């Protein structure tokens, strides 16, 4: 199967324009799974909770999720992308998962970063995985985490324990360390990871966040299969076999997950 990560610079709070831009970028993409950045249609550095509220929407049934479903039907792929979810007056930094047949599910970010804590509630849906298929009908299990979740190895380990073959990782990264860490997350859990980051900068008053790009797909062996630069806008695509994630034997006598000493760990 083919996995694509999209990287670009969204216009702040310009949802319609951003959706049109992403649609154009995806128009000729050949992939089975497409991962878009965190908050890909809204921008990230909200000046106020009112900013975030102004671009919030229900999941499913909102403008962004509906457009994602259109793209998935047209391209016959699974799409994962981040957005501001509104639910009963509460705001979540969420990711929607959709496919050619419509809405699949959602994930709400567990680990909020920096001023996200001023606007969003912590995720309350745990770390679900989703049973999906590629265009040939082959099934695979998809896990999702958002941006700063990468900093907590428990998140990716939980997805591995739940059977994830691939972790889709929408992101708005500003820290320089994530591109170095994601190959380790892939290696220590023996699965694929697909990080889609954004580029550009946003400011609130005298505070500026500069996004580092460097979207990448990593293998269960901890190799970077494809990566992008700090500044480029585009879509990177790589072919992989999700079944490679499923044999977690390290040697004939060692299994990565079965050999964990949970009796000795402090959680």
Tell me what the structure shows.
The chain has helices spanning 15-26, 49-54, 63-75, 116-119, 153-161, 178-189, and strands at residues 2-7, 33-35, 78-87, 90-99, 102-108, 129-133, 139-144, 166-170, 192-196, 199-204, 207-212, 216-218, 224-227, 234-239, 249-251, 254-255. By secondary structure, the chain is an alpha/beta fold. It has a six-stranded mixed beta sheet with strand order 5-4-3-2-1-14. α1 (15-26) packs parallel to α3 and α5 runs parallel beside α6. The longest helix is centred in the first third of the chain and has 13 residues, at 63-75. The mean pLDDT is 98.
Topology at a glance:
Elements: E1 2-7, H1 15-26, E2 33-35, H2 49-54, H3 63-75, E3 78-87, E4 90-99, E5 102-108, H4 116-119, E6 129-133, E7 139-144, H5 153-161, E8 166-170, H6 178-189, E9 192-196, E10 199-204, E11 207-212, E12 216-218, E13 224-227, E14 234-239, E15 249-251, E16 254-255
Parallel strand pairs: 1-2, 2-3, 7-8, 8-9
Antiparallel strand pairs: 1-14, 3-4, 4-5, 6-7, 9-12, 10-11, 12-13, 15-16
Helix pairs in contact: 1-3, 5-6
Rg computed from alpha carbons, rounded to a whole number of angstroms:
17 Å
Structural class: alpha/beta
**CATH-level-4 superfamily name:** Carbon-nitrogen hydrolase
- Approximate shape: globular
> How far do the termini sit from each other?
36 Å
Q: Give the CATH topology.
A: Nitrilase/N-carbamoyl-D-aminoacid amidohydrolase
Task: Tell me how many strands there are.
Answer: 16
Strand count, sense and closure of the main sheet?
6 strands, mixed
- The helix tally amounts to 6
Number of domains: 1
Strand content: 25-35%
What's the arrangement of strands in the largest beta sheet?
5-4-3-2-1-14
Order of helices and strands: EHEHHEEEHEEHEHEEEEEEEE
Averaged pLDDT, please? 98
Assign the CATH class. Answer: Alpha Beta
Q: Any idea what the CATH architecture is?
A: 4-Layer Sandwich
**Unreliable sequence segments:** none
The percent range for helix content is: 10-25%
């Amino acid at each position: 199967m083919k996995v694509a990560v999209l990287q670009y610079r969204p216009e702040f709070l310009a949802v319609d324009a951003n959706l049109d831009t992403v649609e154009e970028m995806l128009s000729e993409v050949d992939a089975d799974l497409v991962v878009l950045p965190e908050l890909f249609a809204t921008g990230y550095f909200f000046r106020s909770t009112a900013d975030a509220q102004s671009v919030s929407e229900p999941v499913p049934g909102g403008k962004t999720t509906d457009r994602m479903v259109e793209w998935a039907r047209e391209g016959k792929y699974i799409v994962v992308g981040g957005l501001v979810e509104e639910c009963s007056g509460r705001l979540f930094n969420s990711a929607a998962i959709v496919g050619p047949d419509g809405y699949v599910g959602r994930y709400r970010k567990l680990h909020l970063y920096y001023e996200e804590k001023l606007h969003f509630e912590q995720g309350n849906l745990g770390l679900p995985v989703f049973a999906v298929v590629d265009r040939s009908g082959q099934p695979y299990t998809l896990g999702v985490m958002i941006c700063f979740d990468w900093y907590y190895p428990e998140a990716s380990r939980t997805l591995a324990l739940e059977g994830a073959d691939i972790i889709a990782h929408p992101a708005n990264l500003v820290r320089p360390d994530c591109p170095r860490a994601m190959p380790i997350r892939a290696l220590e859990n023996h699965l694929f990871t697909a990080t889609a980051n954004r580029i550009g900068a946003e400011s609130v008053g005298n505070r500026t966040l500069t996004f580092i790009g460097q979207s990448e797909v990593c293998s269960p062996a901890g190799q970077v299969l494809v990566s992008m630069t700090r500044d480029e806008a585009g879509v990177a695509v790589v072919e992989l076999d999700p079944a490679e994630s499923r044999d977690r034997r390290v040697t004939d006598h060692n299994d990565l997950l079965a050999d964990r000493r949970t009796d000795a760990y402090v959680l």
